[in-house]
Amino acid sequence: MKSKIQMTKISNFFYKIIDAGDVWAHCDLFCGVYDPAQARIEAQSVYNAMKIYHMAKDDASKQRVVLIKEQRAELVKHHLWVLWTDYFQPEHAEKFENLHDLFWKATKAAGDAKKSVDPADGQKLIDMIDEIGSIFAATKDGYQYGPVASNMLGQAK
Amino acid sequence: MKSKIQMTKISNFFYKIIDAGDVWAHCDLFCGVYDPAQARIEAQSVYNAMKIYHMAKDDASKQRVVLIKEQRAELVKHHLWVLWTDYFQPEHAEKFENLHDLFWKATKAAGDAKKSVDPADGQKLIDMIDEIGSIFAATKDGYQYGPVASNMLGQAK
Amino acid sequence: MKSKIQMTKISNFFYKIIDAGDVWAHCDLFCGVYDPAQARIEAQSVYNAMKIYHMAKDDASKQRVVLIKEQRAELVKHHLWVLWTDYFQPEHAEKFENLHDLFWKATKAAGDAKKSVDPADGQKLIDMIDEIGSIFAATKDGYQYGPVASNMLGQAK
Amino acid sequence: MKSKIQMTKISNFFYKIIDAGDVWAHCDLFCGVYDPAQARIEAQSVYNAMKIYHMAKDDASKQRVVLIKEQRAELVKHHLWVLWTDYFQPEHAEKFENLHDLFWKATKAAGDAKKSVDPADGQKLIDMIDEIGSIFAATKDGYQYGPVASNMLGQAK
Amino acid sequence: MKSKIQMTKISNFFYKIIDAGDVWAHCDLFCGVYDPAQARIEAQSVYNAMKIYHMAKDDASKQRVVLIKEQRAELVKHHLWVLWTDYFQPEHAEKFENLHDLFWKATKAAGDAKKSVDPADGQKLIDMIDEIGSIFAATKDGYQYGPVASNMLGQAK
Amino acid sequence: MKSKIQMTKISNFFYKIIDAGDVWAHCDLFCGVYDPAQARIEAQSVYNAMKIYHMAKDDASKQRVVLIKEQRAELVKHHLWVLWTDYFQPEHAEKFENLHDLFWKATKAAGDAKKSVDPADGQKLIDMIDEIGSIFAATKDGYQYGPVASNMLGQAK
User: What CATH number labels E34-156?
Assistant: First the structure.
């Protein structure tokens, strides 16, 4: 098994970049770690749950899907709210004029996803998070949102 | 602001790949969405908290760091446990012989990180998650763990 | 003990008003129950904790205060986020132009309260919630925010 | 928008009263903030959920109602238990002889509400919390329970 | 390793008793599973945390102890409240006249344990839970509380 | 009511044993309190829920069962994961060669129990926890797992 070695190589590569200077931006706030991946991952679960709902054959399975979808959509809301309040700063709100509205609509879309079993509503939520993800990337040097989304698309039902 | 347009382009690109056929593997299980990014993100918080502990000037701030580190390390454990139990299957355990031991040591490392304020203990935890991440990537076509880790390294204190 | 009788009288009075017709507005959404009291109550705990921090004589008590303050401030954020996303609708955002900004600053103030032990920061948070409470009352016929706030002021340290 | 100004006026009014002396009682205990409003708000959600259950047209919506009702009834129990254990003191138990029994029956009523979709069971729970609320008010100078209940009645389905 | 075989023997023994008829009483309620062991286990953690507090050498460790003690004491309260409200019935309250008072004092003792680092306060809490445990055993044929307590005493610091 | 006196006697008996010396082993780790009873109790709830599912007459009751079963099975997983990571040490893994595999399969069985309403799947989970319980007992002098299991069997539906 050679995964250990491969990773070590990758890590060394990363650290070189880090040590090299100011290439990588980082957050100046207290806790300082944010990633729209958290909301995106849960949104994929919501979307997949909607697809599975229609495949489920018995009542108990459908009930589970509704329950899991509810929990995951709640986590989407939480992760989005945290990004909005804790990560984004006045200068971002100035630069991205629709920032507040986008987060409002995205968290409302997560609420709508709780009430729906239509995968189109899940897709709408994912699209909004992807838009937030690309704004996030635009504010953070070196952060790549593309792979975050593609890692999830590869797990779509 | 052109982020919307850029993202749409990326999305279209992804969907083309998805629609193209079997290029992207996905999980056959019920819920079907897994991503070691979840554990990696929380581990970065643990590491950063350790660094911040030594910079904090008053007792109340240090107490907050201990509290946040405890919560984040618990989340690391949870996300790792979920990966181990829910994602990995017997065929993976056969292929990656140290799978159980690696998860055992990684979750123990998260426990050790609760007890310590030495960033080296946080780094040890991150290294183990990176190793798990690379194994995960090796089992999932199209999943890239590299950007997941580099997105976090860019946010290291 | 005559409290039972008194309450019954009050209840009858309320029900008469309810039954009387359309005097009381109510939410048309799914779950339909919202009350800024939830955020206001937790904010009072945050404020009181800040006062108590300075009265506490031993380290263990101070540590408890920091912990409880952190939890309560997190609950403030949660209750405010729920109000913002779930209760308020586009027509409200149009009428109260600073709605998004007010919620953003109020939830940021809750974050600041986690980092501070200065009661002035707790007061700032309470003031913003009181402003939200008065907007809420302005959108809901028959809702009184005044007593919600005064019930808490009576419990201030 | 004049809500800001109105609130400031109200606040000043409250602070004058507070500053005036001993008019407002407050709790002598550690954390010191209690309000039966917390249980009352969740109980309204339970009651509304019961009403909505019978209006819901599809299975998935009914399943959501059952789930939300369960969570809200659990919160009712929690908030009542906290009041009973943390707020009420031996002198209250002496004065209000049925205090223990009332809390026991009210928390049991919350459990019954989990098992039922009959709004009458939700009303029974609300009535008991209203009785607790009036006892609470009787023990705390300046606290008004009436508006707490009427704020909720205005949101009844 | 012969543990598997031993357990199978024990299991068979239990099932024989179960199958034999009405020897084992069981709860008639919905969920039907209760065990004072849950509260007793967490109370032991509270007690041990108090002992460890005085052994801890650095501030960060003491802060962790305060945090863990707080969480565990909260779990004690929760498990006791559940027993009181969900398991015990009017016929029990009639037979054990101090039932309500005992639970009130035990949950208050859990609250006191949050505020204290004196192991004597932890012991007081354990004693009350042991008293509840013996009442529980007296209401449930075949339930043994003795081993529950001794399993914990063996883990006391 | 003589339960108080009986318990005091039992307690004295236990303390004598404790005070007598090294008869009772205890954990050397930080927190130091572990008991497979926690997982076993929740597993009994899962099993009972499965039985109740088939007795339930209306949809709302069945939905509740699915919900409660999901929560309880999640708690089983959590308690098992904690035992595996926090309690068991390398020397145990060496002595009980199937330790990792047993925990992996037991937590997977808890996941399977979420997806099933067949009591046989609940029994499979219980059997694995009983096996873990007997291993735990074999590593801890004075700990009795038998009564833990029999206390639950007496509450089986």
Answer: 1.20.120.400
